[in-house]
Amino acid sequence: MKFAVRLSILGMAFIVMFSIIGLRLWFVQVAEGPAIAQAAEEQTWLVETTHASRGDIYDRNNNLLVTSRLVPAVFVDRTFVQPEEKTSLIQRLSSILAMDPRALETSYDEAGTNGRFQVATVDSEVAYQITEQLGNLPGVEIVKVPERVYLSGDTMAHVIGHLGLPDATDLEERDGLDPTVRIGKLGVEKFYDDVLQGTSGTHEYRVRQGEIIEERPAIAPVPGSSLILTTDSELQQVVELALAEGIALSNDVKAIDEADGEEVFSETKRAAAVVLDPQTFEVLALASVPDFDPQVFVTGIDDETFSALNDSFAFNNLAVSGLYPPASTFKAITYTAIQEENLPFPSDIEGVDAANRMIHCDGQLELPNLNDGSQQVKPDWYAPNNKGWLDIHGALEQSCNVFFWSLGLGTWQNRETVGENVIQDWAKDLGYGSETGIDLANEAAGIVPTRELFEEWAEYQRENPDEPPRLDNSRLNPELVSPWFGGDLMDFAIGQGAFTATPLQAAVSYAILANGGMVMEPRVVDKIIGPDGEVIEDLSSPVVREVAISDRVHDELMQDLNRVVTTGTAAKAFEDFGPGLELVGGKTGTGQTSKTKDNHAWFMGLAPIDDPKYVVAVIIEEGGSGGGIAAPVGRHILQYLMGNEPTPIIAGQKAD
Amino acid sequence: MTAVLNRIREVAVVRRNNRSDWVLFGTMLALSAFGLLMIYSATRTSGTFSMERQMIFVAAGLIIYTVTSHIDYREYRGILPMAGVIILVLLVAVFFFPPVNDVNRWIPLGFFNLQPAEFAKVVVIVALASLLAPAASRDELLSGPRTLSWGRVATAVTLVVVPGVLILREPDLGTALVFGFILFALLFVAGASWRQMATLFTVVVVGVAAVLRFDLLSEYQMDRIRVLFEPEKVDPQGIGYQIAQSKSAIGSGQLLGRGFLAPDSMTAFQYVPEQETDFIFTAVAEQFGFVGGVFVLVAFALIVWRLLVIATNARDRFGALIAVGIAAMMVFHVFVNIGMVIGIMPVTGLPLPFLSQGGSFYMAMTLSLGLANSIWLMRTPVPGENQLT
């Protein structure tokens, strides 16, 4: 091949290379150009965001609980910082603010070329000092930013909640979240975050060499709306104090028991209570101990303090997310089911007078051979003493396990005719086993055990042997007809077994019984108020559905619940109630979870029984007996609600 | 000093009957002037310092062009070994100076930073041309086979690999690639057989595979290749950001551009990193649009066309191969630089001839065109000389 030919080939290769460039240039500039130009135009605009002031929170009596105040904050806008000024700026600013220059440099770098970021909130003295030196601090601005103030301190902490910077999950779940703006992490601060948050204002401008050359009209931030809670601060304080005293009482009693040689497993630390208006389902008070001060999340909380609080369950709202066996408090529900459904008495066992619908409460129940592995003799561990023959009214008053067991057994024996899940259906109708729908996050649903559920669990457990078992492995025996036994139904009838519920669910079930069958969703927020004070939304809960409860059963139940506090298991705790005891109802409960834990102390209260306005649920976790520990706490709260001077919380009788 | 001046006078043959390649010179001058305007537009918010500095280099470059034009290019054959040694020493010397932005490319001389790799390109072109143009008698050339021995090919590869490896170590992947492109172009034009080309090509492919397989490229070099294929994954504030900004600027130029010194252009806001050096083409494309970009391409095409004309008219094979080498260098710079700016080539840091800011590069470019002009001036043999084609 001649030189000239080779040179021509090379020349053609060059032409191809130039053509590729030319074509691509056509594509980028002429074909795609207009779209790219549009995007590039937008890119030259910088946006400065002004955060909206968060809405306030008031209690039901319009007491201001949470507000926001404007505090000076130091911002750095990198648009106005020349690259060579960076080092000296970071040095000067970090020394004025007494902060680690490396931390400041990290935020600076993360903000990006034209980024603007908040360095810290400062007190007015430091703000003044910086203002004087602004000439030496390029890009630095002092801007007033809203800061949350919790006037209520740690009162009502779990209802109110707290703020925190959004984490990865928050940013993923919610569009348009500013990663530098704190959002609600708990309580109504979280549940109503979008209402409280408001809309940020924006200011768009273009900058060349640190000077604004063009701006668009600024859009002012729209402040967030405010909340009026259904809760009453004063009542809340009474409830929280009563819980603290109940915990102290429990620990005193444990010390005495231990000295007497009784087995005590651990110190009592946690408790929860709910006060609900059964006519409106407004939550009047809702407390969980231990609690925390939401303000620490504003001023900054170190990892150690946070972990300590977190480990103590301070951030868990036990009233809506704590799950406990409802124990004897559930007898009021079984009571209603027995009455309404006329549940049958068992046959073939001693101590049953079916004709008079009475059971001999002698402390133990002898069972026929149910041929399914259930126990043959069930001892009533908490009422071993002979109470003689009791009808359903006496059985509720004395919290007789044998009576309700017997009716559970009778239901089991006649399950073909009355239906196997008749008691569970009543429980579900009254709100157990599903969320109540309260406007607070992390609500637990609890478990209402049935044959279907146990069989589902057993199947899952056989297929996934490596996961933690929910049922005892002996129940998986293939020779058994079912992993669900007659004994399970009997235990369910007294609120035990695999049955769990939250204190709020217990309160809701009593509220439905008290109001004659109206089911509503409980609320902690009453109204949403706009920035100008007008009511934006009234959150009064409508009646979702109704449960048919006859007036006779309702009235008898109210009377029997009154007998509990006058002559029954809570009588001692209510000795000093004062006037109006005849209008108060209650039910004690002692929940067993394991043989190595102390019992949970429950008390459910209700007043006035002729026209119920208050339902009170109290649980002292691993606190001991319901009658001894929880009933005095409930009595104290009811005294306050009924206008009596609350008397000191001292131990009631040890009763189930 | 007088000895040197005498020598220059001796070799500076004044050719009255031959005229300089005015198209070549004119295009170079136009591009340089345009380059100054582009540098001004890209840096004006920070003052005129960058442009003024480049003006000094342009002046120096024009002197270099004029002097080189009037030195008989054939004289370089004699000083090639010395030039080779000097350039190798300089290429090693860069490693003894503190790195700038983590790379060792420059020797600080106070008034400016010398980048030996830019001049190494010219030296390697001349050396390759000398090696591949047989210094034989006219008869031999006319009758003998136009083939290259394997030994000569191997020597040519060595001539490129030795400085190439040093430059790759700086690291400067772009410049090292220029060497490879020049080598291929010159071997092909000088008459390498298809088998030789194929063998060399295979060696390069295997070599590249080995480099990728054994991680011989630094992380940042790998990123620059990766960002071509997945721009959103690799460091958005770094290279990917640079390419994105560059594309925005070019795209917003559209057909006719936003106008010179348009106040709201990305160029005016200095939104394209390193715009006055490697990304200078974005200033052209944004302010003068597709039309302006094509004008610049046409200007480069003119230069390359002239270089190839010079090659065909050169008095000997040595001159012809020098002109081809210079043409290959120009084309590769233009293709890779603009290709990078519009996102079809990796960010290798190759500047755009005559437009990008940078002293060594500008002067090396005028040096090479001066060389080409010298070949043009020498094209007709003076009476009594042998004419070799």
Strand content of chain A: 15-25%
Strand arrangement in the largest pleated sheet of chain B: 1-2
Count of strand segments of chain A: 24
Structural class of chain B: mainly alpha
Rounded to the nearest angstrom, the distance between the terminal CA atoms of chain B is 36 Å
Strand content of chain B: under 5%
Major sheet summary line of chain B: 2 strands, antiparallel
Radius of gyration of chain B: 21 Å
Cα radius of gyration of chain A in angstroms:
33 Å
Uncertain residue ranges of chain A: none
Number of strands of chain B: 2
What is the number of helical segments of chain B per DSSP (H or I, 4+ residues)? 14
Count, helices of chain A: 23
Q: How would you describe this protein?
A:
The complex is a heterodimer of chains A (656) and B (389). Chain A is α+β, with helices and mostly antiparallel strands. Helix content of chain A is 37%, strand content 19%. Chain A is built from 23 helices and 24 strands. In chain A, the strands form 7 sheets. In chain A, strands 2, 3, 4, 5, 10, 19 and 20 form a 7-stranded mixed β-sheet that branches. A 5-stranded antiparallel β-sheet of chain A has the order 12-11-24-23-22, sandwiched between helices. In chain A, a hairpin with a 4-residue loop joins β13 (352-353) and β14. The longest helix of chain A is centred in the first third of the chain and has 29 residues, at 3-31. The radius of gyration of chain A is 33 Å and the shape is elongated. Chain A starts with a helix and ends in a 15-residue tail after the last helix. Helix content of chain B is 66%, strand content 1%. The two termini of chain B are 36 Å apart. Chain B contains 14 helices and 2 strands. With 389 residues, chain B is an all-alpha fold. Chain B has a two-stranded antiparallel sheet. At the A-B interface, α1 and α2 of A face α8, α11, α12 and α13 of B.
